[in-house]
Structure formats: structure tokens, C-alpha cells
Amino acid sequence: MALNLIRPQFIVERDRERCIDCRVCENQCANGVHRWDQTRREMTLDTSQCVNCHRCVVMCPTEALTVVATPHRFRDNANWTDKAIYEIYHQAATGQVLLTSMGNDRAHHIYWDHLLLNACQVTNPPIDPLREPMELKTFVGAKPDRLLNQRGEIEDDLPPQVELEIPVMFSAMSLGSISLNVHKALARAAQELGICYNTGEGGLHKDLRQYGKNTIVQVASGRFGVDIDYLRAGSAIEIKIGQGAKPGIGGHLPGSKVSSQISETRMIPRGTDAISPAPHHDIYSIEDLKQLVYSLKEAVRYQKPVGVKIAAVHNVAAIASGVARAGADFIAIDGYRGGTGAAPLRTRDNVGIPIEFALAAVDNRLREEGIRHRLSIIAAGSIRNSADVIKAIALGADAVYIGTAALLAVGCHMCQKCYTGKCNWGIATQDPWLTKRVNPDVASRRLINLLRAWEHEIKEMLGGMGINSLDSLRSNRLMLRGINLSDKEREILGVLAAGE
Amino acid sequence: MTDRPRHYCIIGNSTAAIAAVESIRRVDKQGEITLIAEEPYHTYARPLISYYLSGQVGPDQLLYRPKDFYQKNRVAALLGVRATRLDTGSRIVYLDSEIESLHYDACLLATGSRAWAPPIPGIDLAGVGSFWTLDDAIAWKRTIQTGERVVVLGAGLVGMKAAEALVKLGCQVRVVEAAPRILPAVLTQSAAANVQAWFEQHGVEFQLGTGVAALEGRHQVETVALVGGKQLRADKVVLATGVRPRLELAEDTPIAFDRGLLVNQWQETTVSGVFSAGDVCVGFDRLRNCNQINPILPNAHHQGRIAGFNMAGEERMNEGIIPFNATSFFGRSLITMGFSQENELDMEEITESTTTGSRSLFFQGNKLVGATLINAGQRAGILLSLIRERFEVADPPGLLRSVPQLLDFPDLPRQEQKGGGPGEICGCFRHDL
Amino acid sequence: MKRIVALAEYCLGCGLCAVYCSALHTAPDLDLVRAFRQPKRLAAGITVEKNLEFAVARSCRHCENPYCVESCITGAMVKDPLTGEVWCDVERCVACWTCVAACPYGMVTISQGPHDQHPHAQKCDLCRNLSEVPVCVLKCPNEALVLVEEEGVA
């Protein structure tokens, strides 16, 4: 038998003074790290299984546990890092593609953090959001070509819109990659907040039809769960061409995770692998995309916006122009930091471009071509806080999607092991003992708390800039200044340097 | 309804009587209640007399209800008064007191039992007495001295509790029992041997399968002579050889009785207006599907409570109980429920020993009909529920191996309870769990 | 009256409710480490039951006509006429096990705490005199226990 070269990555430390042998850590760890040793009458552990999810640490009633990265290291090597070496060992042992979850975790620049906001001082006073109304309402959908109609009146025959109370929505996360309880929480929170959540490519569960007004239904390459009722159930339809975490490839839900609930919702046989092919096999050109867009519009009688989601890649501006001309009512652009339930490690870490550049480039191009009004832009791919939201809008977004931030609010600890299906927080799993861990009442409350807090912060920052409506911020690069950016980067983003 | 308030006459002062008082008062706040108690004490918990003897509880802890019970419930308590005769035609109770008689609208006979002993020669010697009333316990507490040799006649529950108390008082204790094992009415041979060992560890000696020929001594008892010739030295002899129900008041009346007073499911005797509850009357034994006396405290309370409702005009039916008994000796629990012995009907016994005791379950087919739990009493009430509902148990050996849990029996009917929605009936919002 | 109801859908079977119950009744300042180091610790009044599919934490139902009150040989087990709560007056209890055998839910046990003179019947007392809201409800990590209030004392 060959040696296992993979060493435990984490050490679980137990303070014996504080441990009360309650065994909660044992029954909560889905990876079997903790165990009660009947003979020695104490808790013992197998640290090799630890994924650093912190479930035991958080659940321990006496704070007796800590998880630390192992101090066991290779000799310092800036090129062949520990990570690089272990990846070789894994592949030598298994012959398999390395998988991972959540978004790109590499130490590249985070361009949001290189953008600074304006604040008003003397000539243009700031606005106090507690005293003045602030307009955060956003309409997602195509806008008319002209403000006035032929009779000289304000055009009020508008294409269909989705009305959002705040410019933040919950990103597409499929039922299958995450559990029904999380979907319930997202749906309820979206309803309460007056925004939308996105079904992702796993279909719409029947228990969630009641939240249709706050749902964007996604049509992805596998067409899971897509039938006429599905299309009509939501307030908008999103054709998924790609996602930021894994541009250019499809999705794969292993058969073991296709339970009867998943089977029913996705409309596939139980236990079969759910494979979403890389391309839509009926979209091989931009003209094909236009055909699908209009087929879907016909299906919903032109009463709901139909949009397209793409990953941020090279030439994203040209792609966006094509999408706009294909009749899409909105375009969602997912940057390379976007999250996923499962993706090949190499694709996640090496494919795609940052959303900040993609967003700015698309906004510029569409304005230059005079077609910016034909669709709304939704930015995604690691929106981490309300400042990122403000900056995204200033770079040209109408609204943003949050995925990872939402899951963090629900309890995710970023262990990046979603692909194992053993999410100890009950989020990225279908195991009923684990999915119970998300109580939709609690989770929806946390999501609502998060976005209410962001809402207040957005109002504060807007007020600080002296504006009281998002319309004054949209695409307004003058509200931003760049710091620690190269000239070329500033040029693409369209922002001046701090000091200018 | 009549204009004047009803008058309730309760004859008895123990569990059944008290339960009746409480349920009468739930229905009828106006009616007058007179309680007639032969013993001159505030209601006390009879099973506690052995604890009192050993010193584990003091006199204050003997009270079955707080000191203000009679006053709070507006009961005229005639303590130390004996009812002598019942005129059921005119509805009059005659008393041996200044108040010579009382008229009643409804009367409860809850007179319980008295200690009984076979006619052994020498039974009237000094130092010989029964162990049933508080007065008995008080007398023993006064006369027994540490180190004395005490012989207990009868190894039933009363005798064994007395023996335990005497051990705690530092006496040398011997127990004589006619049956071949201790606690013959409730335990199998092996279970009895188990429990006997606990006593033997505390120095108690047993003479089983032996009768008593005579008690010998001049004024004071000195020897117990067993059938077969053996002699036991004895400074004191405690008689725990059984009880008989107090049926005197029913004699010379139309009230029917055989082993106990006969009552219907509303606890009424064959004479209208006269009810009965507790050890003195028979009740429906759901286990054996017949009427018999169930001389256990829960049954007395159950019957008393139901009698009280019916006396006050609110109809309640008694569906009978499953006999069960719980006690502890030297800190170890002993619980028997339902059938606990072989030879009854067509039962199978399965037993599992634990490190400290054992669990025996008696099955008829897949239905649990009895249990004996020796130091294994956790959640025993669930087993009683299974017996009561004649529940089909899917996995009898599994039931034996572990502490029972309701989740294993989702279809088990849950007991009476007023809750919120249907989910409350079992305490969880999924009411089928 | 108040009652604790369990949401079996969200019960994790973690047992923290029982940990906190036992701890609070042993050390009212809820110092868990000290409570669990005591040689005698009061048994929890809430019990987690598990099968392959579900877990649910059960506690005393504070029944309308409690079997434990009916069977109690000393009168120690009482139903409070005002609040409807069923509780055990420990001073008067002699640990005879009758209530344990009577309760159809199996919710009574015999236990002894560090300050008790003797073992006694122990069951959920809705954290009487210890906490306004029962500690199991407060500490359940998934809000699987709720306190419901109803009219009356039944």
C-alpha cells in the first residue's frame, strides 16, 4: 500500500480545563473529527478529517476548542509553496481533477479597495439620511429609446421592469448546490426586503412558488426544471451563459446528491448525475441567443424582463454589446471572484477577469454605442459590503448580486468544501441531518439584517457625496478616485487619480 | 337543583379522600364538605411511615397536603372521629362524637384497609405489633433500640420497607416469609433473589418458604418459633402479613361488596349517592380485564378524583388502571408494572442485565404486558404507557436494551392533555413524532 | 400557561438544551465548567430523542391532569393553581420513583444536585426562579424550541 503524503492541514486544540465532555462537538462534526473514547473516558480526535469549518468551535458551550493551521510546513519556498506541493501530491494519489468551492482566494488586487469615494464639504453640503428621503429604488429592465413619445408626452409605455427597493439581489445558487432551507430563507428575505433572489440552475421548488414576485428564474444550459409554469412563476427570466467562478465550463451535480426532492424540482431521474453542458446546445452564435431571448419573451407574453448572465472574460464589452442587441432586458456580469458550489481548482483560480474592469468596460462601450439604456447591468463576483455596492453603481451597475455574502450571513465559514456535500453549516448539502441546521426563520432574519444594515450604510455614503438618489450615482465616475492604480487601470475604470 | 348547597360527607382522610375533596371543589365551590377521619392526624402519606421510622423524614414532612389544606378547601375536618353506622335510606352517617350524626347528599367511603395477621399463638405479647398506621410507627420509634433483634413477619412491600427502616435504625433484622421468595406478589424468583441480595448485603437474614408456628415469651416476646422447629431470638416482632379492607360501614346496608366494595365506572356503589374509592373498593384492572382491588396509591388518587367529580354532578368515567409499583431499597429502585411474573397467560419474558441491575420485559406476542426494572427505571413511564395501550412493539429486544423513547413509537396514543394546536399533544409541532 | 414546544424539523440533536438545563439548575450563574465539575449535577429536565431521521427534545408537558401529581406518595409533586406549572417540592420528595413510573412521557427522573440533601424527582420546571425564559429555549442554537403561552392553567 502506497504512503499517504497528505498531512492534516489543521490542528484542533481542546482546552481540557474547559471541556465538559458534553459531546456536542462529536455529534456536530460531519467529518467525524471528534469522538468520545469510552475506555479513556475523554474526548479524542482525528484531526486529518478537519476542514476548518469551525462548527465545533462555535457550538462548544464552554469555548474549549480552537482550530489552527498546522505549523507543520515544508521548507520555505516562494515558488513551490506548501499549497503547490500538496496539489501535486493529491493528483499523484488520485489522478483526478482538483476540485474546490466558493470564489477565487488568490492574493490579487481587490480593485474595489483601490477606489475611493467623494464626500461633500462646503460648496455642496452633504445630506443627512436621517432627515432627508433617499431614493434607493431601482428598476431592472430595458428603458425606452426616447423620453418623450410622438405626442410630446412622457413615454409611459415601458418594457417590463423588476422593481427593487434597494439595488442588491441574491445571486443565483442552485437548489442542489445549496439546500431548500437556504432557498426558503433567501425567498422570504427577498420578499421582506422588496428585492429578488435567483433560483440558479436547479429549478424552482414547489414550496417557493408563492414567492414568485421576488424570484428570478434561471434558464441554464441543462434547462433543469424549465417548463412553461416555471417561466411564468418568477418576475424575470435569466439565461445563464456563464458564471464568474468557472467561465467556459458547465456544472456537475453528482448523482449521490440528486435526492427525490432534487429530482422532482430539476425534473430528472433520481440518482442520475445532473450535468449542465458548457454551451447551451441551441446557442452557437449571438443570433441563436437572440432567438432564445425572444422565444422566452413570447412564452411570458413580453410581460417579464428576459436577461442574460455572462462571466467576465476577455472582450466582455463586445459580448455585452451583442447581448444588448440580442434583445436582453438586463445583463448580469459575474467577475472572476464569484463563488460556486463546485468547480475545478484551475478554472476557478485562472479564468475570468475582475468585475470592476468588466463593469466599467461594458458601461463605457454601451454608452459609446448609444445603447446603454437598452438593458440594466447587474454586477456580481465578490460584492463584499455596502461600499462595494456604491462603487459598482458608480462604475455603471444598475444593481448588484450577492452570493457569498448572503451565505456568510446564513452561517458559512468559507472552508471551501462545498463540493463534498458535507457542509457542516447545513448550507451546501442535501443531507437531511445537515440541512436541518439552517432554520429559515433564523437565516432569513440574518439576511434581512445584513441588507438593512447595508441599506443604511448606502444612504450614509450617498448623503456624504451630496446626492439623494442612486440615479445621480449611476455611472458617475467623477464620484470615484483611484489609489495605487496604474495609469492603464485608471483609464479602463474611467477614474481620476486621488488628488486630481 | 336544590336551593341549599349540597353536603358531601367524606369518610376517610388519605389519598382517595383528599383527591375527592380536590375534585369536588373544582366543580362545586359552594357545597359543604365534612371529612371524617378515624385517625386524629392531618392527612398524612401512609407510605412514608417507614421513612418516618428510620428518621429519613420528620413529622412535618409526613403531611400529604399543606397544613392549610382543609381551611383552603373549606372542609370541616373531624379528626379522630369514627363513623359508626350508615343509614343509606335516609342518607345519614352516625358518628362517635359530640356531633352524633350528619345528613349527606353524597357520601364517599374511602376507609382503606387495616392491618391483618393470622391467628398465631402469642400474637398479643408485648413487643409485637403491626406496621400500618402512623400510630404504629410512632410506637415503634419510641420502643425500638439500636442493636435489637427484630423479626419481620411477611416479605411483601410493607415488610420489606419496614426491614429497610429497621436496618437504618441499626437493628439486627430477620425476615420470615411463607412464600418461597420475597415480594412474592410482584417478583419472579430471579428478580426476588436479586433484591434479596441487597438486604443481605446490609446484614438482613431471610427465612423463606416458612410459616410461623408461634410467638413465645412471658409478657414480652422472646422467640419466634417457625414451622419445622427453627427458633429465632427476637426482641421485637413486626407483623406485616397483610391487610383487609375496612368494609364495616357497608355491612347491614344494601351496599354490595365481595373482596371490596363494588363500584361502577363512576365510582358509585350499588346504593345511589354512596361512592367509594381507594383500597376499600374494587376497581377495573385493565391488565387482567376484571375487577379487583388495586391497592396502590396512584389508583386511590385516580378513583378518588373521579368519585369527587361524579359526586359533584360532573360525569367522569374511570377507565381503570394498570397496576404498577415503584419503590426503592437502599437507594436502588425497584419498579414493577403490569404482569411481572411467569405463569400468567401466555407470556414470554426477556431479560437484560446491566452493571447495576436488570430489566425484564414480559410480552404477549409483540404486546408489552409487564415489566420489572431493577435499578433501571429511567423513563419507565413510557413502558407503562405501552402496556396501557396494548401497543404492538416492533422490536422487543431493542426495547430491552435501552432506555425507551417516544420517538420509537410515533403511533402510541398520547395521554390526556389540553394543549394548543394538535402539535402540542406530544410536545412538538410535528405531532406525528 | 407557558409550555415548551419543540420544532422537530430544526432540532439538530446536539443536546445543548440538556447541557444548559443541567448547568443552570446546578450553578444558577450558568458557569458551565464549574457546574460540570461538581460531583453531583442535576439531571436535565429536557431529553433529546433521536432516530435515523429525526431528533426532538422533549420536556415535561405540564399536563392538565398530571399522572405524576396523582401518583406522588408524599404530595411533593404539585400543579401550581396560578401558573399551571407542575413542579416538585424537593424537601418533601423521598425519591420513591413512582412519578418516574407514572409519567407517560418519561419526563421525570431521580437526581441530586450539589446542594441537595438527598436525591429527588427532577423534571422540567420551566426554569422556575432561575430564568424568565427557560434556558433551553434561549440557548437552542437553531431556535428549535419555542415557548408558547396560552390562556388558563390547563
What would your notes on this structure say?
- The complex is a heterotrimer of chains A (500), B (433) and C (154).
- Chain A is α/β, with parallel strands linked by helices and 500 residues long.
- Chain A has 15 helices and 21 strands.
- In chain A, the strands form seven sheets. An eight-stranded parallel barrel of chain A has the order 9-10-11-12-15-16-18-19, surrounded by six helices.
- The model of chain A has no long low-confidence stretch (mean pLDDT 95).
- In chain B, a hairpin with a 6-residue loop joins strand 13 (212-216) and strand 14 (223-226).
- Chain B starts with 6 loop residues before the first strand and ends in a 32-residue tail after the last helix.
- Chain C is α+β, with helices and mostly antiparallel strands and 154 residues long.
- Chain C contains five helices and eight strands, in the order E-H-H-E-E-H-E-E-H-E-E-H-E.
- At the B-C interface, helix 7, strand 21, strand 22 and helix 8 of B face strand 1, strand 2, strand 3, helix 3 and helix 4 of C.
